[in-house]
TrEMBL record:
It comes from Roseovarius lutimaris. This is UPF0056 membrane protein. It comes from the Bacteria. NCBIfam families: NAAT family transporter. It holds the Pfam family MarC. Belongs to the UPF0056 (MarC) family. The keyword Transmembrane helix applies.
Length: 208
């Protein structure tokens, strides 16, 4: 067992995925939902993102190359999708839409944020996908792949645990505090989305 590699892999994935920083975002995206529905969203998001990261760790760039998608193009697409979510958060369209559909909120999954944007691209985004591909490339073979997947799953488990604690954070912030944080996170998400796009353009040699 290469302890140095495991520590490096864990720290790298922890910084890229950022379980602590993602918790307020999860609160903002699930604002007003019951604890049961929030827990279900957390499970779906973490399971989906873990499966995607396992697939990319196992098959790497061959998956994107097989369907003709480069990593820079993937970064640009993820950035655009994330920017649309940021706009909804900034202009409170998400909150108004939930208010209009309050009576069927418990059964309506049409706006479920578990797959997009929580699982993709916030957890399993271009950064984390590229990281697992690179880590798996550093330790070729079944054993190396197993270690990379194990480290990745441990980080996703931390994300899930932080999501379960999100209710406490929401109560601490209150309604006004949550709205303020939602707006601030919307700005941060917009900036992150633009950075994804710029990274993609740089990969194509179109940005300095």
């Amino acid at each position: 067992m290469d302890t140095a590699f495991l520590i490096t892999a864990f720290v790298t994935l922890f910084v890229i995925i950022d379980p602590i920083g993602m918790t307020p975002l999860f609160v903002a995206l699930t604002q007003g939902m019951s604890a049961q529905k929030r827990r279900a969203i957390a499970v779906r998001a973490c399971v989906t993102s873990a499966l995607l990261l396992v697939m990319f760790a196992a098959f790497g760039e061959a998956v994107l190359g097989f369907i003709g998608i480069s990593m820079p193009a993937f970064r640009i697409a993820g950035g655009i999708l994330l920017f649309l979510t940021a706009l909804e958060m900034l202009f409170e369209k998400r909150t108004k839409r939930r208010a209009d559909q309050a009576e069927e909120a418990e059964e309506d999954d049409s706006h479920d944020p578990s797959i997009f944007p929580i699982a993709i691209p916030l957890i399993a985004g271009p950064g984390s996908i590229a990281t697992v591909i690179l880590l798996a490339g550093q330790k070729p073979g079944i054993e190396g792949l197993a270690w990379v997947i194990g480290v990745m799953l441990s980080v996703v488990l931390l994300v899930f645990l932080m999501f379960l604690m999100s209710g406490l954070l929401e109560r601490a912030l209150g309604r006004v505090g949550t709205n303020v944080v939602t707006r601030l996170l919307g700005m941060l998400l917009a900036a992150l989305a633009v950075q994804f796009v710029l990274d993609g353009l740089r990969g194509f040699g179109l940005a300095g």
